[in-house]
Design brief:
alpha/beta; five-stranded parallel β-sheet; 5 strands
Length: 213
């Protein structure tokens, strides 16, 4: 059985998810925690999970900090974010802290099942929320590498800034160019990297070690 940890401060949702996961073949919930600190404390006495489903917004220790802690102390635990937040910057922040997938709380049970199976078997789950283009690549390594995709220095600099919490306007200010010029860098990289979202840019940069985590 594949061991799952549920970390969410909403008790009813957490317990409902535990029941649902218990109905899925091959999975069992071994930890239910209300925040990251509670999760860390339970790790001292309970079995180590193979997958941790983390909410983002929690008291005491939120999902971003919990993912970061897991990455540092138990990198073998695969993190999947489970949230109502669709903001690109939040998704990127979780991916940079080691999340292997990001699904919404209002998803269908079938998507949750698929996400758990893919994260367990392939190491990650990329759904439409993250980027439709990269989902199509499945579990195969990227055919492109930083050496094969021709980027000029400005595009490469923009790609690194795109992996931060800054807005496009703030990136333009940092680079000393206009917002329209930044839009041009973004659109050029969308075409070159065959992605359609800022999250897709971040995934490419992370997987190809263009940004340091």
């Amino acid at each position: 059985m594949i061991k799952i940890a549920l970390v969410d401060d909403h008790v009813i949702l957490r317990k409902s998810l535990a029941v649902l996961i218990g109905m899925l073949k091959d999975f069992e919930v071994v930890i239910e925690a209300g925040n990251g600190e509670d999760f860390i404390e339970q790790l001292k006495t309970k079995p180590l999970p193979e997958i941790a489903l983390l909410d983002i917004t929690m008291p005491v220790m939120d999902g971003v900090e919990t993912a970061k802690w897991i990455k540092q102390h138990h990198p073998h635990i695969k993190v999947v974010a489970l949230s109502m937040i669709k903001n690109d910057l939040v998704v990127i922040r979780m991916l940079k802290n080691g999340a292997r997938g990001y699904i919404l709380k209002d998803c269908e049970p079938e998507e949750l099942r698929e996400a758990l199976h893919q994260v367990n078997e392939r190491g990650y789950y990329y759904n439409e929320l993250i980027t439709p283009k990269m989902k199509a690549r499945g579990s195969k390594p990227d055919d492109d590498s930083p050496l094969r995709v021709m980027m000029n220095e400005k595009e490469l600099a923009f790609l690194r800034w795109a992996c931060t919490d800054k807005t496009y306007k703030e990136i333009a200010d940092e680079m000393g160019v206009s917002a329209r010029t930044v839009d041009g860098y973004r659109d050029a990289l969308f075409q070159k990297l065959d992605v359609t979202t800022r999250v897709g840019l971040a995934i490419y940069a992370i997987k190809n070690n263009i940004v340091l985590l």
